[in-house]
Amino acid sequence: MTALAQSHCVHPFASPDTAFAQPNRAMLKVILVPRRNPQMTRPQFFDHLTNHHAPLVKSVPEFTRFLKRYVQNHTRLPAEGADCVTPYRRATDRDSVIELWFDDADGLHRGLAEPRYQELIRPDEARFNDLSSLIILATRESGGLAADGQPSDCKLFDVLKRRNDISREEFAVRWERHCDLLQARGLYRGSVRKMTRNVVVPDDVNPFGHAADFDGVMETWLGTFADAGAIAKLQSEDQEVAESLARFVDRAGSFSLLAVERPIINAPAWTSA
C-alpha cells in the first residue's frame, strides 16, 4: 500500500466517518500511482515497499480486515529490461502502481479510521513516497478479456484521460466498444494474457471528495514486455482501431507504465508471486 491517506497534498479523510475470475463490479478498487521520495533511489524504494511496508500492512489486522486484496506493481524502465514502445507516453518518472480492493467506500473509510492504521501505516507511507505528486483513483472493474489463461506478472498500465468534449458515461461506452474491437484482432489476442478495464467512479460517489484527474486505467497482462509494442503498433497503424481510440481518449493527456506484479494479500490463483 502507498500513501492512501493523502492525495495532492490534501488529506481526503480528515474526518473519516479462480484463474480468470469475473471482476466484482460492486467492489471499490483504489489505484495509486506514486513517485518515490526523492531522497530514495529506486532500489531503496522497492526494498522498502517489499521488505518493510508490505509486512507492516499485513501486521495490522484492524486495517486488513477491511482490505480485501492488495497488489504492488513495481515499474520497470528501459534500462531494466523493459525497452519497448508503449501505447501512450511512457511515464518513467512513476515508480509503482498500487491496487487496493475494499467492499465499498464505507469499508475504505472505516479502515483508514482505525487507530493502528493512523499510528503505524500512515506515517510509513510518507517515508517513501512523494505525496505531493500522488495520483489516486477510485475505480470499479468493468469487464475485460481472458485471452489464453497463462500466468504472467508482466503488466501494462494505460492511465486514460477522456476527450474533453465527451462525458464520463460516453467515455465508458466508447471504451468498451474499443476493447471489443481490439479483441477481434489476432495480433492483440496473441499478445495479451488478460485485460481489465478499471473505470473511475462518478464524482458524486468519489470517496476522495474531489474530481479525478483521469477517467480509467486499462490493465493488461502480457507474455513479455515486448508485447506492449505490438499493442501500440495496432492502435496506431490499424485504421479502424486508431479511429475508435480517437473517439474517446485524449492521447496527449494519457500515459503508460510497464511493471512487474507483486501480490501481497489474497492474490488470485492465476498470478505468479
From TrEMBL:
InterPro entries: Dimeric_a/b-barrel, EthD_dom. It comes from the Bacteria. This is EthD domain-containing protein. It comes from Telluria mixta. Pfam families: EthD. Residues 38-132 form the EthD domain.
